[in-house]
Amino acid sequence: MRFTLDMKLKDVMEVNPKTAEAMQELGLHCLGCAFSVNETLANAAQMHNLDPNVLLEKVNSVEQGELSAEAAAKAQPAGGILQMDKKTYSIAPHIPAGVVTPEILRKIADVSEKYHAQAIKVTSAQRIAIVGLLPEDVPKVWKDLGMDPGHAIGLCVRSVKVCPGNTFCKRGLQETLALGMEIDKRYHGMKLPSKFKMGVSGCPNKCADSASVDLGLMGTSKGYHLYVGGNGGVKPRQGNILLENLQKDQVIPAMDAVIDYYKQNGKPQERIGRLIDRIGIEGLQEFAEKAMH
Length: 293
What we know:
By secondary structure, this protein is α+β, with helices and mostly antiparallel strands. It folds into three domains: 9-74, SP0561-like (Orthogonal Bundle), CATH 1.10.3910; 81-145, Alpha-Beta Plaits (2-Layer Sandwich), CATH 3.30.70; 157-291, Sulfite Reductase Hemoprotein, domain 1 (2-Layer Sandwich), CATH 3.30.413.10. Helix content is 37%, strand content 15%. The protein has twelve helices and nine strands. The strands form two sheets. The chain has a five-stranded mixed β-sheet, with helices on one face. It has a four-stranded antiparallel β-sheet with strand order 1-2-4-3, with helices on one face. Helix 10 (248-265) packs across helix 12. The radius of gyration is 21 Å and the shape is flat.
């Protein structure tokens, strides 16, 4: 059969396992990742700065066959992220709201030491990454940790950053930790048109980057401001204030409305900020306000 650009990587490899080797030659080293293999050939080409037609021709020209042992060894282990050396992997256990216990810290340290990790890195997404693991050790590390992977890649809700809020911080105007945990449980890993980041800040200092992520909350003396459409990257974008002074029981309905609108109107790989730039914010604002009543 002839493959097309709208076919998922996992389906292409299922039809002809040997296509994995061809894709690896072009730089696609994430073929063992549960998130990446659900992308289409077109998405994979875009993510790796490849000409989609070159990728398509490559997989269609491969003879039918099984995956070689060498190629299988290079395939990214589930829950692992290939590092710069193209030989080792990092993992990022999911740590909701960035809150850990001494027991979790001890476990991460013990497992890292057991498998000779090159480094332990606190990430900007409030996770603790274990860096420099051998591919054959990655499944063992996950088993020993007994923790879920954080969604660090893929077209889904990635990190939910949460500041200490008025539980601990002297500047906090609103509660953030319990709310952030609820938000994380509800949305983390949810499939969306593009990657999606969230931040929950308890005051206008916005320590959780609420105005520069796709969907953010900022505590005020009267409630929470809801920001939408921020992002970093090559073309950074400041988020727009969508709703002001929401009460705590209004936050989740408002966020649900934003997510639903984005699912209905976002194009593949289009961040919500670019959606707003394309069609305006008025429709989203009206949709969210209706959800509040």
